[in-house]
Each structure stands twice: as C-alpha cells, then as structure tokens.
Amino acid sequence: MNTIIRATWQEMARRKMLLITLVLTALFLAVFWFIADTVALPGGGAASDLIGQFARRSAILSLGFFFGGFVVAFLAIFSSFSVISGEAEQGVLQAVLTRPIPRWKWYVGRWIGYVSLIGTYALLLYVCIVAITGVHAGFNRHAGDNVSSLLLFLAAVPALVSLSMLGSCLFSGIGNGVFVTMMYGAGWLGGMVEKVRGVLPVEPDVQATLSRIGALLSLVMPGDGLNRRMQYVLTQGAGETIPFLTGGNPPSNAFIVYALIYTVFAFGLGLWLFKRKDF
C-alpha cells in the first residue's frame, strides 16, 4: 500500500498539478497580504476600537477562506476525478491489478495518497491565511477553536476525494469531473441560499422555504457547509458583516456528523463498486 501512496504523490508531481497550484497560491497570498494590510486598522487597531478591529479581522478571514475553500475543493476534484476510469481506459489499471495486489489495497492506497497530499496543502493554506490575518488584524481565538476550525477545513478533503473516487467507478473521466463539480456546486448554492435569505426583504414563510431549500442542497455535498461552519468557529458570528460570504445560520453539529457519515458511505460504496468492477 505504501507503494501506491508514493505513486499517487509522484503522479501529482509529474502532472505538475500541485506545482501550478502552489505557484498560484503564492500569488494569491501576496494579493491577500495586500488586501489584509488595506482592510486592517492602522497599527493593528487601537484598544479603544476593539469592535472595529474584530469586524475587520472577521472580514479578512472570510475573504481568505472564501478562496481557500474553492481551491482545496477543486484540487481534490481534479486530482482524482479520473483515477479509476481514466487509468482503465489507458490500460494502466489492468496491468497493475494483474499483480498479486488486493484491489482494496490499491483503492485505499490511492485514497490515502490524495487525502494526505491535498490535506497537507490545505493545512499550509490554513496556516498562511490565519498568519496573515494575525499580522494585520490580530488573531486571538482560543486554541480549541483554532484546532476545531482546522479540522473542519481539512474534513472537506476526504469527503471530496471519496465522492470523486466513487464517481470514477461509475462514469468516464470527463463525465465524473462534471458530476463531482456539479455536486460541489449544488452544495455551494445551498450555502449561498442560506447566506442571502437573511438579507432578502421577503416574508417569514418565504425565508423558511429558502432555508429548507438551502439545507437540502447543502446535504448533496457537505464540503461548503463544513467551510461555513469553520468560518463561524473562527469569527464567532462576526462574519455576518459580510452576508454574501458568511451570512446565514452556521451548520449545526448534526450537519458535521452527517458529513462524516457521508464521507464514510461514499468511501465504502466506492470501494465495494471497485472490487466488483470488471476491467
């Protein structure tokens, strides 16, 4: 299994996908540094203006993780969307599986390879965004909140990889890329409906309907919901100052449990289909 994990890392390095992502991320962090410096109060905010400092810190975090959630999601999707169907079409998978390697070890090795590498990238991105925010606007969240938000940010990676590998057992490479992207887009749309419903001048019953629609769409792919909960933990609701990015009610603890069950189910179903699939 270790060989499969290393092969997954080498494949991502060979395709230069991770290198391109790192270069573009460095460019984003440079722009984000400038934005954070512009938004932050002079000198990091005076003690007499703690409310303004807190609001600016929340705004900077929201802007940073709005991008961070997207880049982590698309890196996870486009790294693994053709891992099974694509290699089967090229004949690579048939050559590998003729060796005495249990199918489950190949599948689990691939999954660990993608999750570990993309998770490491997500960890570095999280640290950079929080560090830049800390330099320009201060960052005084408790260690428990910081760890919880980090775990929520990382939790989207195995969910996306599990769904992508499951789809690769069912669809062609391009078809699966479209499928997983649309699933993530549906979850993002659900979060967006939840964010804007509170600022729309509509009746309470209409707001309740929008809330139900947003919740149902968020269940399709919980990656964006985990990101919204992570931002709420970091800002403790101050993100309401940017309704377009972080408005609405944050996902509940039950949603987090659902996201874990979603990930395990997608992983288990994908493994089961892969073991029964003819190549």
From TrEMBL:
Transmembrane segments: 63-84, 111-135, 147-166, 173-193, 255-274
Keywords (A to Z) from UniProt: Membrane, Transmembrane, Transmembrane helix
Protein name from the UniProt record: ABC transporter permease
Organism: Saccharibacillus alkalitolerans
